[in-house]
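Bit of a strange request maybe. I'm writing a small parser for structure token strings and I need a real example to test against, not something I typed by hand. Could someone generate the tokens for this chain?
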Amino acid sequence: MANSTEKKILGFNRNIFFIGLTSFLTDTTTKMIYAVMPFFLLSLGASKTEISLIEGLADSTASLLKALSGWWCDKIGKNKPFMIVGYLFTAFFSPLFAAVSAPWQVIVIRFTERVGKGIRTAPRDSLVAASSRDGNIGKNFGFHKAMDNCGAIAGPLIAFAILALFPEDYRKVFLFSAVPALLGVLAIIFFVRERKIAICELPRKISWKSFSLRYYVFLAIVFVFTLGNSTDALLLLKAGDTGINILYIPLVYLLFNSVSVLFAVPAGILSDKIGLEKVIICGYLLYSGIYFGFGRTNEKAVIILLFALYGLYSAATDGVQKALVADLVDQDKKGTGLGLYNSLTGITLLPASVIAGLLYDKVDNRAPFYFGSAMALTAAVLMLVFILLRKRQGRNQGGEFYANHSQQQQRSGGDPEIGF
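Reply from user aminoacidic:
Good idea to test on real output. This should exercise your parser:
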């Protein structure tokens, strides 16, 4: 798709830039809502467990669509239609939160809006990967993450400004949230180019054996980590528990996203140079230390510092993990591979959020953070084993570790086609 003579914007090709711009605008919308939603739900009488469950249920159930949309975009060789429909869902349903009067209504709208995310995520990530050339995939996913988090800065800032003018009037925040989302849809329609792929290059069949064992091993490691990576709503509630004024909670969340923006592209560039896996290990270890700190402290200043470090963790993992997934799958199956990855992380958020919410309500406000810290540390150790196995494969001249697995699949007749 991209070529060396194509005019670049801020050092990135056209698609990478405008996909990033759309993510910025859409995340402005979602983070306007996210920054105030826990406290809006509390005002409706929801418990901590219910708040955690709402976030986990919405993201997890809609995440089933990520694999389907990724597989479908691979089969037809198109990404834009899925992206347009997906972003339209967010633009239409986000302001409807202003009309709710009970927590169950939030669940319905939140789930429906997240369906849009399920439709657009894998095709979007596939287009980012297809638009990446010359070993810069980590940098491009880092840029996308940075733009995503720029929206996560703008969103809480706008929410803060609205609440400063209209104290505790969360419904006005929801109403204004539709504007940037609509602008994001227009950016996709008019400025993002569809990838060009010949009919003969489309995959005739996508089966479970279409992906390497290394891909599945990495997904297993991501599952372990994500099980301890519950909704960020609990972090905001923890900040409130330490005595930080609710008015300033959006600004604390803004700090987290600001740090992530500053380091997302450098982390992506570093991962292209030293290896994606090594940067991910650093991110997991950092997360483990941060969550342990959230469990240990009740000091406002320390909580604020931990939010800043949390942004550094985000920069080191979110985009880099997607770049590694894209590296582990074939060019014509990136949509499916990224879709399965996104589905796994989204679905796992449900049990993760339920576990964290129950620990928060039934044990104390430290328990979910200690649990998250332990799971992240376990994932970091598994990633180290992942790297050692890759090195062992290289020494075995042809990779007996994974080749044997492939031969076993062939002898057994392979796996059935993914039933989407």
